[in-house]
Structures are given as structure tokens and as C-alpha cells.
Amino acid sequence: MSAFYFGPPGAQLFGYFHEAAGPDRGAVLLCGPWAREYEYAHRAMTRLAELLADDGHFVLRFDYAGTGDSWGDTTEADLDRWVGDAGTALDELRALSGRPRVDLVGLRLGGLVASRAAVGRRDVDRMVLWDPLVDGRRWVEERSWRPVDGGDVELDRTVVRRSFLDELLAVDAGSYPDRIPAQLHVLVTQTPPDEPDPGRAPVVGGVVPTRMAQPPAWEEDPVVWAGPIPAAALEYMIQRLRRP
Amino acid sequence: MEFGPGSALVGVLTAPSPEAEARSEAVVLVNPGLIHRVGPNRLYVRLARAFASRGFPTLRMDLPGIGDSPLPKEMGTDLERAYLAAVRAAVDLLEQQGVARRFVMAGLCSGADLSFRVAATDPRVVGAGLVDPNVVVPTTRARMRALGSRLPRLWNPAVWVRGAGRLAGRVLAPAAGEGDDTPAAEDARALLEEPLRHLRGRGVQLCLVATGDRHDVFNYPDQLVDAFPDLDLDPVSTVVILPDADHTFSRHESAAELEAILLTWLARVYPPSP
């Protein structure tokens, strides 16, 4: 395992590469959430990467530009740029692992980033969208935001451009590509309490989601001041990404 | 950076800006709670970049079992030993690589507590930036100030309507019959006094920042000196109270304020190297 920086000089991305430790099963790129969801989900994403590596996958975790350990300021948040970052990370993972094809996991906003990053590529086999963000307006309304100096806004304790807030407000199921060029799995562990039973309706990508009640990895467990690790959800993803 | 046994510990070193004046000290930031080295709301990234812009190389490290640093099995559940060993490994590496020979520990919450412990045990540490440490000594004056800030609630008629007796009990309970000799205060004093005496003897500089979320136990700038009147801490301590800030500096104005306080303190007590 190793921590490193990759990508263009002056705008480098932080990555953490997990070597495969089991029988060769391929390579997986993890696309994480944003803001406090990123902070709290760090534990679960790290654990998922470790378990996938133990199962035989090469795994790359990375931070989008202007987030986490990557270069840049929070005001550089931009969905299109992050889709490009995910593409850069996919190429980096192929080079590091020596595998020509890769799988993708996207959590929350990372689900949207991952699905868009796969468009136009022919090297993505499987994709798991884990509680993908499909209601940006609700997401914003459930958090605090306020204008700050310079026309920016502080959203979920992070200063961003107003344009990024508008991008988030516009996110819905239609924001996802019509055709995701990968074998798609959608995992939903949280259903909003005021939402009627969604039955077996697709959430995104025309795929009936798998639903399982699991603690939300991206929310704070007040006892430990970090996110919980939803063991069953992680196991589900490991099974879906396991090649014969 | 990957360091320590098996190169398993992870940290990100922010190099000093080429334009900045050279400094002899490096800063080591340690995790607050279980939050990884980025800190709450990316606070640690902000601080590291600010310190580096003034010439202080700054390492944001993950302690064993947090973020990307695993907890070695042989450490069992002795987290304090694991943490102290990890920080020692980080400081060793920075010293071996010629980054610095003098160090300033810093952290928020449990990161502040650990920073204090490391400062007390490693002679290479010349300063500690302690933000909302958990272990503080609440003096009588601090308790009175905390009580005073609650009393106005009792003059609110709506409060009485809701049950003044219940509220009064809650408001008064923490102070009733308590002075600075309560078990909690004495426990804290026992934990802090000898290390502080040792730090004072070495001339280690301390910067203690307390937010509004610590108002009940730490709320005025002279509190550290008052709590340990025999130690003559005034020449080596800087204490700042930020009543409008919360514990995770969730508003960017608060984060900017903390950055300015720590940066001013660092630049004042550790001038550029000749």
C-alpha cells in the first residue's frame, strides 16, 4: 500500500494505492463523497479498499481537486473537473495495476462522478453506485449554507463558488448518464423517512437497486466523531465485484 | 510520507514556501478524534498551508488506527504507547531528513491532549499549540463566569413557565458546592502539573486556544496561569478565548481566526533562523 500524488504538475491529486493481496480479480477505483460526507466516509472507504485488496483487487482511492489531501482550494469544487479527475485516476490505476480494465465504486456524489467518468470509455467493466445522490436540492436543504464574502457560499462548512451550489441543486436522477457503459449495480441503504415505499423502482441507470438497511457511512456517529462502517454493505460490494 | 515500522504510518508534509524566511522549527499536527489527517472541514490542510507559507514545514500525520495508518497488532489496545511511538517516528524521520531539529506539536481536542503529552516527553519539542484540549483545570473564576453566562436565562419568563425548578437545578448543579478543588479539577491538576513544571523548566512555549464549546470549563485568558500559580507560566504561555467559535471551527471566519492566532504565535516565538 502506498500514498502518492499523481496528475498534472501544479494540480496534483492525492491517491492511496492498495496492492492486491489475494487471487487476481482486477482493479477497482473508489470515488468518494464530498464535504462532511467525505470526512465521515473516510473510514468506510478505507475499510472497503482493504477488504477488496484482501480479496485480490488492486484498489485506488483518491481525493478530487480542492478536497482532502489534493492540491487546490475548496472554491475549485466543480463537477466536470472532478469527472476529469476520476478519468485521470482510472488511467493511473490501469498503469499501476497493469490491468487493462477496471471497476468503479461511487458513494453519494461520487456515484454521479463515477458514472459520468465512465461515459465514452471502453475499459470499465463493473460499477457499483452506493447510495448515489439523486436529489441535490434536498441534500442542500438538509445542510446549512450562507453567502460569504466575494460572492461565494459556505455550504456544509465548506466555502465554494455559487456556481457549484447551483450544480448541486440541479442534481437529480436525470443527471446520471442514460447509458452507463458497465455492468451496473445500485446499492441503497438509506431511504428518506418521508418518501413513500419506493418498491423496486430504479433509482438511476434503469437498474433495480438492492436495498439493505445499513448505517450511513457518510454521517457522523457522535460517539466516535467519525462515520460508521456498514459491514454488510461492504460485503455486498465485494461480492458484486468478484470475478469468477 | 510513509514512515515508522514497516513504513505503515502515513502523513502529508507541506514544504515551506520558497519565498518564506527560513525557520528552524517544523510543526506536527496530530488527529482530532478519529478524523483523518485532513481535519474537520479540512482545517488541518488550511493550517498546514498557512504555516508553510511562513516558513514552517508542517506534517499532518495519521496516528495508528486512524485514517490511513494501521494499528500494529503488537500494540494491542495500548493506544497511548502506539501514539507516542508514532509521533516519535515522525519526528525522527523529519530530523533524519534534515527538515528540522526543533518541533512544535499541535492539534485539536484529543490531538491537543496528545500534543501536550509529546511535548512533555520529547526534548526536541519546543512548543505546543493546544486547541480545545480535553484536560483543563476549571478554576473558581472560570466556574463563576460559566455560571454567570447561564443566569440570564433564568430571568426569561418563558423559562420559568417551562419549569424553573428543573432548569435552575440544571443550571446551578455544575457550580453548587464546587470550587477548584473538585475531583475533576484535582484529576486534571494531577495530570497536568508535573508535565507543565517540566515544560516550564525547558522553556517550551504553549499556545492554548479555547472555543465557545469549552466555555463551561475554560473561558478567560489568565485561567492557565491562575490554575497553576506556582509555575510562573505567564512568560511561556499564550491563551486565546474564541467565544464565537465552535469545536470544529465550522464557520470559515472561525477557521481564519484560529489560523491567524496560531500563525502570529509561531512567528512571534520562533523568529526566522539566521
Structure notes:
The complex is a heterodimer of chains A (244) and B (274). In chain A, the strands form two sheets. Chain A has an eight-stranded mixed β-sheet, sandwiched between helices. Chain A has helices spanning 36-54, 79-97, 109-118, 136-141, 162-169, 231-240, and strands spanning 2-6, 13-18, 26-31, 57-62, 102-107, 124-130, 145-147, 153-155, 158-160, 183-188, 210-211. Chain A has one domain: Alpha/Beta hydrolase fold, catalytic domain (Rossmann fold), CATH 3.40.50.1820. In chain A, helix 1 crosses helix 6. By secondary structure, chain A is of the alpha/beta class. Chain B has a single domain, classed as Alpha/Beta hydrolase fold, catalytic domain (Rossmann fold, 3-Layer(aba) Sandwich). Helices cover 42% and strands 16% of the residues of chain B. In chain B, strand 1 and strand 2 form a beta hairpin. In chain B, helix 3 (110-121) crosses helix 6 (183-202) and helix 4 (140-154) runs antiparallel to helix 5. The longest helix of chain B is centred in the last third of the chain and has 20 residues, at 183-202. The A-B interface holds A 1-3, 14, 16, 36, 39, 42-43, 46, 67-69, 74, 148, 154, 157-159, 224-226 and B 1-2, 10, 12, 32-38, 40-42, 45, 67-68, 248, 250-252.
Q: What does the secondary structure layout of this molecule look like, with pairings?
A:
The complex is a heterodimer of chains A (244) and B (274).
Chain A: E1 2-6, E2 13-18, E3 26-31, H1 36-54, E4 57-62, H2 79-97, E5 102-107, H3 109-118, E6 124-130, H4 136-141, E7 145-147, E8 153-155, E9 158-160, H5 162-169, E10 183-188, E11 210-211, H6 231-240
Helix pairs in contact in A: 1-6, 2-3
Chain B: E1 2-3, E2 9-14, E3 25-30, H1 43-53, E4 58-61, H2 79-96, E5 102-108, H3 110-121, E6 125-131, H4 140-154, H5 157-172, H6 183-202, E7 205-211, H7 223-227, E8 237-242, H8 252-269
Parallel strand pairs in B: 3-4, 3-5, 5-6, 6-7, 7-8
Antiparallel strand pairs in B: 1-2, 2-4
Helix pairs in contact in B: 1-8, 3-6, 4-5
